[in-house]
Automatic annotation (TrEMBL):
Residues 4-78 form the RRM domain. Residues 267-279 have a biased composition (Polar residues). The keyword Chloroplast does not apply. Residues 79-99, 237-247 have a biased composition (Basic and acidic residues). This is RRM domain-containing protein. GO terms for molecular function: RNA binding. SMART domains: RRM. Keywords: RNA-binding. InterPro entries: Nucleotide-bd_a/b_plait_sf (IPR012677), RBD_domain_sf (IPR035979), RRM_dom (IPR000504). Pfam families: RRM_1. Residues 248-266 have a biased composition (Low complexity). It comes from Serpula lacrymans var. lacrymans (strain S7.3) (Dry rot fungus).
Length: 279
C-alpha cells in the first residue's frame, strides 16, 4: 500500500467514490481509496497517491467543501514535495503532481469547481515555500524555446519577447503547427497558450512563484476558454434552419438507415456535468 496517504473525513453520504476519485485526481495519480467506518451523516476514506507531492497538494484542500460537506484532509506522515532528482527530458510526459499548485487550482476552477480565496492563497503559499518542480520548469522552458522558434524565429523565446511582437507571429506559428503537428500531445494546452497573445503572461504564471489570487482566476478563464473551443458546435434549432437545410435529406448508411454517433463522439461530455462546490 502507498505510504503517500491522506485521510479525508466529513464526506457527504451523497458523494460517490467516482466523484471523490475525480476530485482528488487533480492532485495526482491515485493508487486506491479505502473506506473507513463512519456514521450515517458522513463518510471517511484514506486516499493513497503514487507520489508524495500529490499527497502534499491534497492537504491544501483541508477545510474545503464538496457536495455541501466540509472536508477534513489530514495526514499522519510528512510528505516530501517533489522528486527533483528525477531527470526530465524535453518532450517527456509531465505528471499532474509535477505542476505548480496555483496551476492545479486554476484547473479546478476551469472545470467548474469553486475554490475559496483562502484555498487559492494556500496554493500560492505552497508554490512560494516549495518552489516550482524542476521537472515542470524544464518542461516549460523547453516549450518556451520551441514555440518561440516557430513563432518568432531561431534563438527566440516567448518569455523574451513583448506581446506586441508575439501577436504578429501567432498566426504564422499556428499555421506551422497545423502543418507539422508539433503540439499534438497530452499537454497541447501549454503549447497553444504560449503561442497566444497571452503567451508571455502564461509562461510567467507557470514558472514563477510571484502570483496573486486574481492570476489564478485569469488562468482558469484561459483554460475554460480552450475547453469550450474544443467542444463541437451545437446543432441549430429547427426554427433557425434555412429552407435548404430543412429540405436536405439525412445521409443513409449502407443498410439504408441514418448513421448514428459512435465512439467517443457518442459519449456524454463530463465537462458539461454539474460540478460540486469547494470553498
Amino acid at each position: 500500500m502507498s505510504q503517500y496517504t491522506v485521510n479525508v473525513s466529513g464526506i457527504s453520504p451523497s458523494t460517490t467514490e467516482t466523484h471523490l476519485h475525480d476530485f482528488f485526481s487533480f492532485c495526482g495519480n491515485i493508487k486506491s481509496i479505502d473506506h473507513k467506518e463512519s456514521d450515517a451523516s458522513s463518510k471517511s476514506v484514506a486516499i493513497h497517491f503514487e507520489k508524495p507531492s500529490a499527497a502534499h497538494t491534497a492537504l491544501m484542500l483541508n477545510g474545503g467543501h464538496l457536495d455541501d460537506a466540509t472536508l477534513h484532509v489530514t495526514s499522519t506522515s510528512v510528505h516530501p514535495d517533489h522528486h527533483d532528482n528525477e531527470e526530465h527530458h524535453p518532450g517527456a510526459h509531465i505528471e499532474q503532481s509535477d505542476k505548480p499548485r496555483a496551476g492545479i487550482a486554476a484547473e479546478y476552477i476551469a472545470k467548474g469547481y469553486k475554490l475559496s480565496d483562502h484555498i487559492l492563497q494556500r496554493a500560492i503559499e505552497l508554490d512560494n515555500n516549495q518552489g516550482i518542480s524542476k521537472r515542470f520548469l524544464s518542461y516549460m522552458q523547453g516549450l518556451d524555446t520551441s514555440v518561440g522558434k516557430r513563432a518568432l524565429g531561431p534563438d527566440q523565446t516567448i518569455s523574451g519577447k513583448v506581446q506586441s511582437t508575439l501577436q504578429g507571429a501567432t498566426t504564422r506559428a499556428k499555421t506551422i503547427d497545423e502543418q507539422k503537428g508539433y503540439t499534438k500531445s497530452a499537454h497541447e494546452y501549454y503549447s497553444k497558450a504560449l503561442s497566444s497573445p497571452f503567451g508571455q503572461k502564461v509562461f510567467s504564471f507557470y514558472t514563477t512563484t510571484s502570483k496573486q489570487v486574481l492570476d489564478i482566476h485569469e488562468e482558469a478563464r484561459r483554460i475554460a476558454d480552450e475547453h469550450k473551443a474544443q467542444q463541437p458546435s451545437a446543432p441549430k434549432p429547427k426554427s433557425e434552419e434555412t429552407p435548404e437545410e430543412k429540405s436536405t435529406p439525412v445521409p443513409a448508411d449502407a443498410e439504408g438507415a441514418a448513421p448514428s454517433a459512435a465512439g467517443s463522439e457518442a459519449q456524454p461530455d463530463s465537462s458539461t456535468q454539474a460540478a460540486p462546490t469547494v470553498v
